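Hey, resending since the last one bounced:
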Amino acid sequence: PTTLNGVKCVVVHRDLQGHEPMAWDFVINFARDNNLQVAEACLLPDPPPPAKP
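The C-alpha cells again:
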C-alpha cells in the first residue's frame, strides 16, 4: 500500500504473476470485482544492485 499523487493505491510487482499465479489472479480478480482501476506502469525504481566487496 502507498499513496501516489494523493491517491491511495496498492502496487503489485508483475513478478508475482510468475512466482505465485494464484496470488496474482486473486489480486486482479479482486480489483475487477470491486471496480477498482488497474494500471500497468513502472512507478518504482528497481532496487540498486548489491555492493561488490
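Residues 2-33 form one domain.

Sorry for the duplicate.
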